[in-house]
Amino acid sequence: MKARALPATLGILFAACLHASPAEAILQTFVSGSGNDMNPCTRAAPCRSFQAAHDAANAGGSVNCLDVFDSSTGLAFNITKSITIDCTGIFAKVLGPGGVGTAVVTLRGLSIEGSGATGIGIDVQNANTVRVEDCKIFGFPVSPGVGIKFSPSATASLFVNDCVISDNRTGILIDPAAITLATVNVQRVTLQRNTSAGLVATGVGGGGVLVTVRNSVSSQNTHGFAAVTNAGDSGVVMSIEGSEASYNLSSGIFANGTAIALGHSTIVGNGTGANQVNGGVIVSFGNNLFFNNTADGVTAAGSLK
User: Fold this and answer.
1) Residue environment code for 82-100, b if the CB has 16+ CB neighbours within 10 A, otherwise e
2) Are residues 30 and 62 in contact, defined by beta-carbon separation less than 8 angstroms?
3) Cβ atoms of residues 173 and 146 within 8 Å
4) Residue pLDDT, tens place only, 92-136
5) Cβ–Cβ contacts within 10 Å for residue 128, how many?
6) Do residues 169 and 142 lie in contact, with contact meaning Cβ atoms separated by under 8 Å?
7) What is the dihedral of CA 209, 212, 218, 222, to 10 degrees?
8) Phi, psi at residue 234, to the nearest 5°?
9) CB 236 within 8 A of CB 260
10) 3-state class (DSSP) for residue 232
């Protein structure tokens, strides 16, 4: 199963602006390498770009890929309504620079490539619920260089399942705006070779953050899983279960001024296995495996195992 999709500022930007729907908007639209954006984006007459297919679909509709193609335009792909982009089983590439507050967006079966440039793979600024499923996001190593940036301006949820996010500056960055709450669920995700952190949640933007990580791997980053709450910022709470932090240069698990709960997880080959600073606390059910870290970390490291 392959699908390649959107690099540069975002590959995908969830914009706050609203666009008028086309008069002939339909529930399901299609894109193809042989398509044309002047077409109505039907199966019989598909469009060439994701943007045209998105604009032609009704809110709540879907965009599907018909064949292997490269839809690169060098422009951001702006999502402004509830929609599903599904290219499962297809190799579709969109190279870009890289919703409304009630939008529900699903991105499935895409590969979002930054080609070694700056930018953000998926930039969520304003949506209610975003689901990223079975996607590859890679190649954004230059600042800001984020695979998925979740910084909603209103209370919102992000679900990331069955994805590989690698070779960026930061894999997933969670930092909501003030007076909001960001809820994030990460399952079966690999975060690898990101030069800063595999996953980092902060309260710097002013909003609160709740993160749940299950059955995921963060490896060969600087920090594996990190939660940061600075003085005066909103709190971050992270729960990690059945996951692995391995071979990260600095910390496998990093709690800076906030709390991380750790259970049934493997912490192996990191600079410091579990690192808590500035009042940060890592708590555990006592069922984790620490092995071959330069330092296991935490004053009472034995209680984490």
Assistant:
1) bbbbbbeebbbbbbbbbbb
2) no
3) yes
4) 555 433 333 557 889 998 888 887 878 898 888 888 899 999 999
5) 17
6) yes
7) 20
8) -70, 160
9) no
10) coil
177: tokens are 């705006």
Q: Which range has highest mean pLDDT (33-37, 38-42, 113-117)?
A: 38-42
CA–CA distance, 223 with 264 (Å, rounded to integer):
19
Region of residue 43 (left: phi > 0; alpha: psi -120 to 50; beta: else): alpha
Q: Rounded to 5 degrees, what angle do the CA atoms 130, 133, 134 make?
A: 160
Tell me what pLDDT residue 160 has.
98
- Hey, what amino acid is at 235? G
Q: Which residue in 125, 85, 79, 127 sits closest to 103, CA to CA?
A: 127
* Sign of the Cα pseudo-torsion (260, 263, 268, 273, in order): positive
Looking up tokens 């007459």 gives 45
Cβ neighbors of 215 (< 8 A, separation 6 or more) are 187, 188, 241, 242, 243
* C-alpha torsion angle, residues 172, 173, 179, 180 (rounded to 10): -10
Whether the upstream peptide bond of residue 144 has omega within 30° of 0, thus cis, is yes
Instruction: Write out the two tokens for 23.
Output: 């008069």
Distance CA 70, CA 9 (A): 17
- pTM, two decimals, is 0.85
- For residues 133 and 17, give the distance between their C-alpha atoms in angstroms, rounded to a whole number: 25
Place of tokens 């969670």: 174
Please name the residue that has the structure tokens 């422009």.
Answer: 75
